[in-house]
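ugh ok so i messed up the first submission bc i forgot one of the chains. this is the corrected input, ALL of the components this time, i swear. 401 residues overall. if the numbers dont match what u have on ur side tell me asap before i send this to the collaborators (the ones from the other lab, u know who)
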Amino acid sequence: MLTERDVKEALRNPRPEPPWKAEPLLGSVYGEAEIQAAVDAIREAMDISRGFGFSASPIPEFEEAFARHCGCRYAVAVNSAGPGLDMAMRSLNLQPGDEVIVPSVNYQAAPLAVLGAGGQIVWGEIHPRTFQLDPEDVAAKLTPRTRAIFPVHMNGLSAPMDELMAVGSEHPHPVHGPIPVIGDAARACGGGYKGTRIGKKGLATVFSFHTMKNMTTLGEGGMVTTDDEAVHRYCRSVRMYGSEVEAWGTSNVMTKVQAAVGLVQLGRLDGLIASRRRLAHERTAMLEGLPEITPPYEPPDCEHSFYLYTCLVPEAWAGAKRDRLMQRMDEEYGIGCVIANRPAYLSRKILAEHTRGQKTPLSEAVTERLFCVSIHPAMTDAENRYIAAALIRCVEDLRRE
Ligand SMILES: Cc1ncc(COP(=O)(O)O)c(C=O)c1O
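and heres the new structure output, hopefully the right one now
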């Protein structure tokens, strides 16, 4: 842990300007290569015989490169992760009453995709240390109507895919067989799991290239990865009105300019993740021994992408005291913190009404203690040290309350 002298010295630095937001509005790093790629793609499209359409080069090149990066057979580029999640759920052809188990501690997108595809959301609990969908709770909530397990690779760490897939195989659906696992990896691009990249395991995985994410295709975009030929065909077709599979569809295409920039961003991704990981590990070392802060956990077989640096306060500090800690970090030191996320049914009425009678008390308790402290690949070592020092100082101040 930083000594008192280290803390004083680090805090002698001015507050970062502009302040570090909890989730910086550009989560990646852009440079001249992205600008050049966008300009070149626009110039190419200025040829009247080419224009911007349809699903033309470099979109297939970006898809192939992304599939290779994940070690998958297929990748389908989309205009944002939301439609990708919708497609993945719709590919299951859910019937009324069919259930999908999804962690309650979640962004709204995945549960809304279940709802949109006509399924019944079943809330799963998260593991209190990894914040990932808990396989034991999933096993307890399976019924003959369970059609899918839908983890989110929370905050950049992989969900326990092997355990979740084992639960799905051990309790097959009476008609459809082994229950598939579909992952929401919107926050986890570039993370690793047991020697594979996130995106390899499970029936399908959906990534986001939104402006705040680990990499971005001009602010919006996404990708669905899969090894399954039928899911691949379905998503590719539904992305463009569904005619090839004779299913409902709409237009969710990515543009050529986005794909051109995506190829450059993908080339940077390993470096961006390495920077996040180094900053996170160094921060954890600087906080080591501070009893009130439990830093993020990285299982030995996972490579956390550290989209967020997710901490816990002790039970005695749950709720209001955790909130004061976050407020102090922001107001006194210019460091943003965010609760990512509370159970989705607490913030979206439509989800609460759809799942009336269901609760996830363990997850509710954990998220009263959880908070994420700003992290970004462009953060300097001095800023990271300042953040660790500010957290230590805020904890010491609150200890006296
Ligand atoms: C966990 C999770 N899932 C899905 C999404 C939706 O991604 P997009 O904005 O690309 O549709 C987000 C975006 O914030 C997210 O954090």
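quick check: The CA atoms of residues 4 and 389 lie 9 Å apart. that seems consistent at least. Residues 80-82, 107, 109-110, 152, 184, 186-187, 208, 210, 222 surround pyridoxal-5'-phosphate (CB under 6 Å).
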